[in-house]
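Quick start: what a row looks like.
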Amino acid sequence: MKYMMIIGDGMADEKIASLGDKTPLEYAACPNMARVAGGELGRVRTCPESLPPGSDVAFLSLLGHDPLTCYRGRSPLEAAGEQVSLAEDEVSFRMNLATISGDYEGGVMASYNGDGIDGQDAYDIASSLVKNPDFAALMEKAQMRITVTPTFRHIAVVKATDEPFELTPPHDIAGRVIDAYQPKGQKADLLRALQAAARRVLEDHPVNLRRVQEGKLPANAVWFWGAGRATVLQSFEGQFGKKGTAVSAVPLVRGIAWLSGLKAPRVPGATGALDTNYEGKTAAALRALLEEGDDFALLHLEAPDDLSHLGDTEGKAESIRRLDSRMVGPVLDALSASGEDFRVLLMPDHYTLLRTQTHDGTPVPYAIYDSRYPGAPRAFCEAACADRPVIEGGVALLRKLFELN
């Protein structure tokens, strides 16, 4: 038996007036998801009510852990995804490249990801920042080291005490004046100074000047968030008896997978945006199952969440269509052609609401398709699962997927 979990990040939502009073899942009308929904439908609470809803908490749950006992912040999970290790007296942060419009004081968070900056541009901007003498001097004063990546996501690590950090995720303040959300708590003055210095350094960076000429927003700022200490997780294979692989463009997901003992390959051209390597990611997940001897594969698409944070209604619907046609459909066809029995779990990790452009902790819909007992296709959407009982946590859902109950 082979098992595939397909996650459309943040694709669950409310009904939207501009979509004919449908949710993006309903509006997208996906035929391959309907095939999966011919199986078992249900709902699951991926984010405990006492924790902030987000992919960090949700993916801990969905890969077999209890976030209430093991969650120590988002950034250490992302650090693991970049193979950055932490000492006991260190705390890591996510350092986003971002766009702040207007003057820095009184400026507005125009883009939490620097208008989707990626690849060499992102690497060049962050690399030049950490080499700038003024910024580097503040890093030394804060006892900080930064790992640069070819994405808008970079990893900062500092020596720290047990005093709390109070940091706001930038995607939660899209379109808002940043002043009220500046760092508070431990090292707040230094973190604020680093963010202000980054704005001065990056404003006239050659990459940003070119991006403006191309009609893009400049990645003219950084934003620290997601503080946490090193995390130790249980083995996925030890818990469920399944060897596996997680295919994702997002360091957070790769980090949780790696800490859980799963393989987490990088796929060339895979990004967290609408323009990603759908075929390459799908092929990597299928290769793990059908050629490399794995029992389980996770296939993750970040784009619905990204577009929700941007408030892009049509873009979110299109990302769901691409998930259906370029990932779900090929997975079902390839697994069917393999001749092996298989089960596919399809779901979002959490709701991301276009109305608020933020996450929501409402239990999410799921569907489980079993090749031995295919049912008639039916819509996979929030309403189709609304009357189903709620499973509490990803451990119980995985046990259902693996038929261990």
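That is the whole record. Residues 90-228 form one domain. The longest strand covers residues 90-101.
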